[in-house]
Structures are given as structure tokens and as C-alpha cells.
Amino acid sequence: MATANQPTSGNGDFEKIDASFQITVRDHVHRAMRSAIISGRFQPGQKINERKLAEQFGVSTTPIKEALRQLETEGLVEALARRGVVIRFSSSWAEEMILARAALESMIAHLAAKRIDENGREELRAIANRMKEATASGDADSLITLNETFHDHIHRSSQCGYLAKLIERQQFYDASIRRVIHLDPTERQKALNEHVAIADAIAAGDADRAERTMRDHVVRSGDTYLSIVFKKQGEI
Amino acid sequence: MATANQPTSGNGDFEKIDASFQITVRDHVHRAMRSAIISGRFQPGQKINERKLAEQFGVSTTPIKEALRQLETEGLVEALARRGVVIRFSSSWAEEMILARAALESMIAHLAAKRIDENGREELRAIANRMKEATASGDADSLITLNETFHDHIHRSSQCGYLAKLIERQQFYDASIRRVIHLDPTERQKALNEHVAIADAIAAGDADRAERTMRDHVVRSGDTYLSIVFKKQGEI
DNA sequence: ATTTCAAATCTGATATATCAAGTTTCACAC
DNA sequence: GTGTGAAACTTGATATATCAGATTTGAAAT
Fold first, then answer.
1. Residue B230: pLDDT band with limits 50, 70, 90
2. Which pLDDT score is estimated for A14?
3. What average pLDDT does this structure show over A142-157?
């Protein structure tokens, strides 16, 4: 093992530097393309030309191909053998991504309610309290951060690494739109009520209620997002 | 558009040849690796060497890299920037894949119950009846096929393309083990009862019951599978 | 024996070249 | 005008080459 992070004279409790800090070209391309697709900058069915894309990014086709494989596995593009890739994203796809997230987040909330320990409960309540304050003061930026913290904490409490990863791939919120939503006091209050209900259920160890409240929250907030981005309501 | 599939003298209702018939090297590698990982032929944490793998498959590293990107997005391996990929699969990962499938299949069953039409209902009942016969006669091969037909039909009835794709990636059944399970009369009967309950709920348009029965079915049959492969019970 | 550190080596990341399947173009026949 | 088909072109699939970060090695210093 590497010794650089555990010098003989140190106490050794440093965390290893996360290799994911180093951004590769393929990851940059992947993120850029994902963001572009999800925010509707490509038409459904539109063909993607590897060489042109490589030229636009100013790189070779190798990292492009890799990024496209990732997008393909995510379900955002479809690869036709020897005919290239086409965009597969529309409002209906987005609706289904929300449903997928609802299904997975509610499953993870269920498990979190069963597995959370006392420290986790305290931390969860603390996060909820900070959310109350930020909601009252209308601090949209804090709310966006706290929202991530909240869900991350639940993911960790569930002890589900795979499910948490899977959920990440159902995420397609755009920061700017998120801020727009959080700037609306009514929306802000709705989200807070839901978050508090979820936190209560998990802290109380009520797995079924945690599941239900989480699902409702994800679907409702997802629909709000959709109605802004696609000017239409999703439905379950 | 291509005219080859729509000759002027024909009626035009031929389906286009699916481009996925043409197997590429990267897909072959992807499937082979996925199968190998899922059936435990790699140790968790084991490092994968691209060049060696390419040599084993007798191909260049390009399709290998692409296949690894797909596995990475599926969550079966982890890529550390500039340090290569390591296997991320263990019994706990398998348990979570079952939970993911349960969450997604139950969501899709919920929607199928709401969206299925009369033709779909009839077809669903017909499949269930064929399952009854195959169960009675102990025809394991037919049951394996019918099982796929059953779930596929529900996927189609839900009209959810994205969710159906996502579910595919949570599948890790091995045909041989599947047969072992279906050869046990008790298991066979349990599965039949569950399938019938699911079909009834969907045909009756009872979305909540469809969701519940589907979830129970996926979790229970998944646990049966796990107990055989990993010699241990999963839990929810 | 242990530490240090630079050279050698390994290996993933990226670039470039080649190959072959798919598409388009257009002259030609009917 | 319509259909045919071969050549030209396009482009994804694969192979190979190059680059650079990470790891290993081993000799020198302590």
C-alpha cells in the first residue's frame, strides 16, 4: 500500500486522496454531453457524429467513444451497431427518470428508517432544522446545498452503496432552475414540509411511512421541475 | 429513408432489421465480463489490466475500454482515474441489485395496472394460464421462457421504455441456476402463485396491489437465487 | 536494517491510423 | 420517370502508437 498518506511519524488518520478529483477528458465530455442532453440542447433522434464531436471538444475520438458508451448505458443515447448513436431523451424520458428516482429513493428511505442509528437520527434532525431556518430566511443557495446533504445523509444511513449510485444517475436537476424553484416561497414551504415528514418518519423508524413520504416528495418536486423545463405536468 | 424494407410492391408493415443483431467486439466483451463478474469469477477489489484483458480476448484495447465504461456505469466496476478499474461486486451488491429491481418492477407494475388495455389484459391472462400448465407439467424450460414473456408484457403494458431498460441492468440471473430453481416443485408453485397474484392485480387495475405483489415476488425470488449462489439469505 | 529517491517499468489516457459497413451520388438502362 | 448499381464518400469499429501518471525497483546514504 501507499505510504504517502500514512507517514511513519503521523497518526495515519488522513483520508486517501480521492482519485475522482482528477478529471479526465472522457469525464469532462461525459458530463458536458449529459448536461446538454438533459437540458434539451439535442433533439430526440438526433444523430451524433463522433468525429465532429471530437473536433468540437478539441480532442481525439477515443475519449468521445468512451463518454458515449457511458451515456448509452445511462439510457440517454442509443447506439445502433455500425450506424452510430442517436439521442434518446424527451419529456417522457425525463418523467420516467423521476419515477425511477422515486422508486429507488423510497426504497432507500425504507432501509434508512430500519438501519439508522442514534447519531444518524441526531444528524438528520440537525439537517432538518437548518432547512427550517434557510426556508424561513429564504436562503435559496443554502437550501440547494442542504437538499443534497439531506438526501446524501439518508443514502449513507441506508448503507446502500449500489442504490445510491443508481439514484445519482437519475438526477437531472439543473442548478439554475433549482434556484428558481427555491426562490418561490410556496415551493420552498412545500419542500420543507416534505423533508420534515421524511426526517420524522426515518427518525421514528417507520419504514413504510418513510417510503411513502419520500416517494411523494420526489414525484411532486420532480413534477414541479418538469413543469418548468417542459411546460407540462408529469403524472404517476 | 431506406427502401429495402419497404418494397414498392409490399404492404410496408415489415419491421426494420434491428441493428443490435450485429454483435460488436465491445458488446461481446461487455457481456462476457458482466457474466463473469456476476457469477463471481472475479474477486471484489481485483484490479483489471486493460492490456492483459485485450490479449485474453485477442483484440485491441479500444473495445475493452468501451466495455469497461459500460460496466462502470452499471456499477459493476469502479474506475479510479489513472489507476485503472477494480471489481465492485459482492453478495451485498447483488442484494442491492435485487432491491433495485424490486423497486423498479413494482413501479412499473403500478403503471401497468393503470395503463393496460383490454388486449393487454387478455394476453396477460393467457400467459398466466400457460404458466399454470407449465408448472403442473414441470416444464422448467418453458417456465424460464414464460417468466421473461410475463415480465416483458408487463413492461410493455406500462409503456415505460426507460424504466424497462433500467430494470434490464439489474438482472443477473444465470440460466443454469434458474433451471435448478424451477426444477423444485415447491419453488415452482410459489412463483406461480405470485405471478397469478400479480396478473390478477394488474388485470383488475389495482395499481397498489400490483405494486405490492410484484415487489414481494421480486424480493422473494431474488433471495432464493442469492441463497443458492451465495449460500446466504438476503433481507429487506 | 531502514530510509530515500531517482531510474526503470507498468499501465491507463489520449491520439492517430486503418478497416469495413453504411450511405449517398449519379450515370445508365428500361 | 423509375429503378439499378457501381463508385465515391462517410463514419463507426478496431488496431496501433504515443504520452504521462503511478508503481516498483534498487542502489546509495544513514
1. confident
2. 56
3. 97
Task: For A57-84, give one letter per residue: b (16+ CB within 10 A) or e.
Answer: bebeebbbbbbbbbbbbbbbbbbeeeee
- Domains in chain A with CATH codes: 19-87 (1.10.10.10), 91-229 (1.20.120.530)
Reduce the DSSP state of residue B40 to 3 states and report it. coil
B128 has pLDDT over 80: yes
Cβ within 8 Å of residue A52, ≥6 positions away: none
CB neighbourhood size of B183 (10 A): 12
How far, in Å, is the CA of A83 from the C1' of nucleotide D5? 22
Contact B77, B85 (CB under 8 A): yes
Q: Each residue of B215-225: pLDDT tens digit? A: 999 999 999 99
Give the mean model confidence (pLDDT) for residues B29-55. Answer: 96
Contact yes or no for A63/A24 (Cβ under 8 A): yes
Q: What is the mean pLDDT of residues A178-200?
A: 95
Rg (CA), chain B: 20
B77 Cα to chain A: minimum distance (Å): 11
Which of A111, A143, B103 shows the shortest CA–CA distance to A120?
Answer: A111
| CA B213 – CA B217 distance, rounded (Å) | 6
Residue A97, CA distances (Å) to A67, A86, B145 in order: 20, 18, 29
Is 50 exceeded by the pLDDT of residue A12? no
CA distance A21 to chain B (A): 8
- Tell me if residue B66 falls in helix, strand or coil: helix
User: In whole numbers, what is the pLDDT of chain A averaged over residues?
Assistant: 91
State residue B172 phi and psi, 5-degree precision.
-145, 30
Lowest mean pLDDT among B8-12, B70-74, B148-152: B8-12
Has residue A232 got a pLDDT over 60? no
Chain B interface, best mutation among A33, A69, A226, by max B CB count within 10 A = A69
Asked if residue B124 keeps its beta carbon closer than 7 A to nucleic acid strand C, the reply is: no
Residue ranges in B8-160 assigned as alpha helix (H) = 25-38, 50-57, 61-74, 91-115, 118-137, 140-158
Does A72 reach chain B within 8 Å, measured CB to CB? Answer: yes
Cα of B13 vs its chain's centroid, Å: 29
Q: Which residues contact B108 (CB under 8 A, 6 or more apart)?
A: B154, B155, B158, B160, B163, B164, B167, B214
| A19 → closest Cβ in B19, B69, B83 | B83
